[in-house]
Design brief:
148 residues; two-stranded antiparallel ribbon
Length: 148
């Protein structure tokens, strides 16, 4: 992003993201803040200001532990629930290897921080444990949630 701008850099970034949303290039989840920092070559505070500007306009919304989404789209369930459902759908059994942090970041389009938080919650609930070779494995899968 050019630094010598009559408008703030964060406004240029928010406008760029707004156009991508309007054109359908971003239709659900936004890239992680770290990815946006790399893409636009700016720091976290600049990205934060750009995202807050879009949120103030009602274009995007933040979902704790899941990231930023175009308003009215995306899976808003907690990441732990989405990971658990994914493991079930894949036929993962107790004792099987648990996906790596990188795999989970890519699969769910969330930040490493969100993944680490979900892993800590799952370890705390006794769903996963550290196995041999410092690789996590599935210890248990909770019963399916009833949907109303």
């Amino acid at each position: 992003m050019p630094q010598a701008s009559p408008r703030g850099t964060y406004l240029q970034i928010s406008e760029s993201l707004r156009q991508k949303i309007e054109k359908g290039k971003i239709s659900e989840a936004l890239p992680s803040e770290a990815e946006l920092m790399r893409t636009y070559g700016v720091g976290r505070s600049t990205i934060g200001r750009a995202l807050k500007a879009l949120r103030a306009d009602g274009v995007i919304e933040s979902v704790q532990g899941a990231g930023w989404y175009v308003t009215g789209t995306g899976d808003r369930r907690p990441l732990v629930e989405r990971v658990t459902e994914s493991l079930r759908a894949e036929g993962t059994a107790v004792g099987d290897a648990f996906p790596s942090e990188n795999e989970l970041c890519e699969r769910f389009g969330v930040s490493r921080t969100a993944v680490r938080t979900a892993i800590a919650q799952m370890e705390g609930q006794g769903l996963i444990e550290m196995g041999p070779n410092r690789r996590r494995r599935v210890r248990a899968l909770p019963p399916r949630q009833e949907t109303s």
